[in-house]
Each structure stands twice: as structure tokens, then as C-alpha cells.
Design brief:
CATH topology: 60s Ribosomal Protein L30, Chain: A
Structural class: alpha+beta
Distance between the termini: 11 Å
Oligomer: single chain
CATH class: Alpha Beta
Length: 125
């Protein structure tokens, strides 16, 4: 098992890894629409896009690219944001490389975020 971190992402404080790679897979921790400074950006779509980009940044640190993503779990503070998330999703993933996905509403997310994503990708090792 390999702990994966990226200096491009907000520090975790040592409580968890940005991602963990093992047995040909890399799984990210839950990613918010948070800048490297630790602040959550305003607005649903900017948060959603940054959360996805943060997950991809963590996966890239493990040697995986966007085409290697096989599954994404999406937590929404409001399920009514699902259509807006789909729009962001289509800007991030190519139509011929869309991973499997699960999305659901939760009661609350850390730091008042409106969306959190966790991604899993295949890796070369």
C-alpha cells in the first residue's frame, strides 16, 4: 500500500491521505471544492468542478489519469444540484470514457461544502 499526497492539494493535517494506491487501484479520500489554501470556493458548479479536479490531481500523483477513473462516488448536500453536477461531469469526462458513478444526498458535508467526491482509478502498479 502506498500513501499518495500532492502539494497541489490542501494539507490533510496528517489525519488521512489524499489517496491510497494498492493492488493496481488508487482510491482518493473525499474531495471538496477546496483550494490549496484550505478554503471552499463559492457556488455549486465551481465547488463541483474543483472537487473533481482535486480528485484527479490526487490520482495523477499516483500515476493515473482521467481515462483511468473507473468509479466516482458523489455526495450532494442537496439532490436538486444533481442536474448541475451532470453538466460539470460532462466537462470533466469525455463521452467515451465516463466512469461508473453513484450520487446521493447527505445531511451535511464538511466545511459547509455542497458536494464531495471520491474517485477510484486503475494504476499501472
Amino acid at each position: 500500500m502506498k500513501r499518495v499526497t500532492s502539494p497541489e492539494l490542501a494539507a490533510t493535517g496528517g489525519l488521512f491521505s489524499h489517496a491510497v494506491a494498492a493492488s493496481g487501484l488508487c482510491m482518493t479520500s473525499g474531495m471538496l471544492g477546496m483550494g490549496a489554501d484550505g478554503g471552499v470556493v463559492s457556488g455549486f458548479e465551481p465547488q463541483a468542478e474543483l472537487a473533481l479536479r482535486n480528485a484527479l490531481t490526487a490520482l495523477e500523483a499516483a500515476g493515473a489519469g482521467v481515462a483511468d477513473v473507473v468509479f466516482v462516488q458523489v455526495l450532494l448536500a442537496d439532490i436538486d444540484d444533481w442536474p448541475a453536477f451532470n453538466g460539470v461531469w460532462q466537462r470533466v469526462f469525455a463521452p467515451d470514457a465516463m466512469p461508473a458513478r453513484m450520487a446521493y444526498q447527505v445531511a451535511a458535508l464538511p466545511l459547509g461544502a455542497r458536494v464531495e467526491v471520491q474517485a477510484t482509478a486503475v494504476t499501472a502498479s
